[in-house]
């Protein structure tokens, strides 16, 4: 993945495809918004294809959308992140994750480029002014007193924590979290077997084994987690009840290193 600056007299080659990136979507409305933005962006930079994807939870995921474009033999793909604000680590973990996906895929890959953060756009002030013109007053009157509602205590016995500490974020934990959550919805893991709940966590401890997730009630640590590792953990541990030793790291009282080192490209 490359990011190049160009002078006003030059322009980068036109991409075959533009992929609009958002972070997460949990309901139908954000997906509708992204479809509308993709429609507005048709023909952007001369591209013949404009689609959208989510870097965390939501479908299509970035991995799914990107691999679809690889299958369609797109020659050049422009990634356009729409996140505000954009975390400083975004480019770092995205590049590492894309390299990992590419190393695992034997097919020829397109060249990739990425647009700058929306905050750097020269038209941002105009956009904010345009949005200000759409303002509506908020109703801050006292709400009617409602009877307190009860809540069900979750019956699910399994918990999966995905580390969101600095090293794990830099290693692509956002993509791992998104894959886990999407699979949780697709496979109905909340009501399958013992039932599964998932959550993000602050640092889980073994930072040099990033990205890290932990499965309870056993408290099993998994390190160097990839999408393929998540799929095995779901099938073998969460559903089958068997720890996936290939990715598991048990407390030994000694420092441990990753057994599956990421590809260096």
TrEMBL record:
**InterPro entries recorded for this chain?**
CbiX-like, Thioredoxin-like_sf
Question: Carries keyword Ribosomal protein?
Answer: no
Q: Which UniProt keywords apply?
A: Lyase, Metal-binding
Q: What is the name attached to this protein's record? A: NADH:ubiquinone oxidoreductase
Q: Which organism is this entry from?
A: Shinella yambaruensis
Taxon lineage: Bacteria, Pseudomonadati, Pseudomonadota, Alphaproteobacteria, Hyphomicrobiales
